[in-house]
Amino acid sequence: VSSGINAEYGVSFDKNSLFVQALDKACTGFMNKNAVSESSGNTGKSPELLAKYCNLLLKKSSRVNPEEEELESILNSVMLIFKYITEKDVFQRFYRTLLANRLVNDTSVSHDLEGSMISKLKQECGFEYTSKLQKMYTDTHTSRDLNDRFQEYCKNNPAPNDTLQGFSVMVLSDGSWPYSRPNSDFNIAVELRSVHDRFSQFYDKQHNGRKLSWLYNQSRGEIEWSRDKPKINHRFTCSTFQMSILLQFNHRDSLTFSELQANTMIEKDKLDALVRQLINKFNVLSSDDIRTEAPILPTDGINLNLAYTNRKIRVNLAIALKSEAKQETESAHQSVRDDRMLVIQACIVRTMKSRKQLKHSLLLAEVMQQLQNFQPSVPAIKKCIGILIEKDYIKRLEGENDTYQYLA
Predict the structure, then answer these.
(1) Could you tell me if residue 267 is left (phi over 0), alpha (psi between -120 and 50 degrees) or otherwise beta?
(2) Which end of the chain has fewer CB atoms surrounding its CB within 10 Å, N or C?
(3) Contact yes or no for 285/278 (Cβ under 8 A)
(4) How far apart are CA 135 and CA 141, in angstroms?
(5) Which string of DSSP letters, residue by residue, matches 97-158?
(6) 349 pLDDT more than 90
(7) What pairing do the DSSP bridges indicate for beta strands 314-316 and 232-239?
(8) Which residues is 304 bridged to in the sheet?
(9) In angstroms, rounded to a whole number, what is the distance separating the alpha carbons of residues 239 and 210?
(10) Three-state DSSP class for 406?
(11) pLDDT score of 4 more than 70
(12) What are the DSSP calls for 326-368, one per residue?
């Protein structure tokens, strides 16, 4: 709509600036307050959906992807919509997570397009807005060079126990990616241990003083399922957790839940959800003991489903649990709200440090003017002022409750 009207206003309205302002105001209002945002009760729904639409454009899929030139044109249209989004920090949060998934899983339709989109966002919002996105993009190229050196190292230093094919690692800069370090133990399967340790040793030699923290929850791999009678072969794409569970059945067809937990060290609730997924959704495992609505007991038996069949040779098991996807969305919005409070406080401190004294109304106006990536509410600013008073960053002047003074 905006593009169509913009094409006409130069002729019909003689490029009247008031008309342009009215059009921008109308588009901004519609983009941020519409049926979708009202039904969800969340003003950040529009930027979330726009980030997910970008993900559909830039992610490989089974459908025919448009040519790069066509995608570039569509992304330009996305940036027109992005201009009208007021809560740009919400878009950034979701876009960063989805970009990370595309880069880690190597599902981008084009790395050039990924770089082009980051440049567009940088041009619109500045360097600080895209600094983490740019660092993530750079990490992928650095990791390719690192993997090439590791492959060369393995050729020059062969080991008899290296049986994994296509092993590769992405080394991510701490603080730039939307991933947190693991807070629980995990016992990687014996079949994966050899090449895992070799890369750790190789990296330590290359970068003395750096420490690797393995993000097993973001890792993927393939395992082969084979049976002789009848002759059946499948390739399962699995998460590292799923791989470690399934590899426990290489030597035994049945294990108890407590044995699985002891062997893998996966948290009980997480293991419960993974086992249920492998039983109910993928039918790779089976159990006569597990009840639908009750937690899995330590003594419940879990069996390899020897009767498993599938028409597909390659089967993707690495599908996120629905509960995890919903939790990630809620967590992203909560994280944005928490970050905003810190940003508002930092803005208040900067303003008061430079102005020394300021009336309440002027401080509100200054903060609202400076914050470009979202529109802070008056109650949120007032709450942050109260927090800073408690922390002795600012104080109210005696006899003038509507005036604040900066405390050095």
Answers:
(1) beta
(2) C
(3) yes
(4) 10
(5) HHHHHHHHTT-BS-HHHHHHHHHHHHHHH-HHHHHHHHHHHHHHHHHHHHHHHHHHHHHHS-
(6) yes
(7) parallel
(8) 285
(9) 26
(10) strand
(11) no
(12) HHHHHHHHHHHHHHHHHHHHHHHHHHHHHHSEEEHHHHHHHHH
Taking the C-alpha atoms of residue 149 and residue 143, their distance in angstroms, rounded to an integer, is 10
What is the b/e burial string over 89-123, where b = at least 16 CB atoms within 10 angstroms of the residue's CB?
bbbbbbbbbbbbbbbbeeebbeeebbebbbebbbe
pLDDT tens string 21-34? 887 888 888 888 88
Residue 331 has pLDDT above 90, yes or no: no
Cα 232 from Cα 309, distance rounded (Å)? 8
Torsion of CA 185, 190, 192, 197, to 10 degrees: 70
Give the three-state DSSP class for 29. helix
Q: Where are the beta strands (DSSP E) in 228-267?
A: 232-239, 254-256
Q: Where does the pLDDT of residue 163 fall: very low under 50, low under 70, confident under 90, or very high at 90 and above?
A: low
Percent over 70 (pLDDT), the chain: 92
Strand order in the sheet with 232-239: 220-227, 232-239, 314-316
The mean pLDDT value for 131-136 works out to 94
Least confident window among 39-43, 98-102, 320-324, 392-396: 320-324
- State the average pLDDT for the chain: 87
Distance CA 243, CA 253 (A): 15
Sign of CA dihedral 262, 265, 269, 275: negative
For the question of whether the overall pTM of this predicted structure is more than 0.90, the answer is no
**DSSP for 288-331?**
SS--SSSPPPTT-EEEE-TT---S-SEEE-----HHHHHHHHHH
Contacts of 172 (CB under 8 A, 6+ apart): 136, 139, 179, 215
Q: Give percent above pLDDT 90 in the chain.
A: 45
Q: Rounded to whole angstroms, what are the CA distances from 392 to 184, 340, 355, 385, 406?
A: 37, 20, 17, 10, 9
Token output for 78: 């996305």
**Sole residue written with tokens 């395992």:** 223
Identity (one letter) of the amino acid at 19? Answer: F
pLDDT (tens digit, 9 = 90+) per residue, 230-271?
A: 677 889 999 999 999 999 998 889 999 999 999 999 999 999
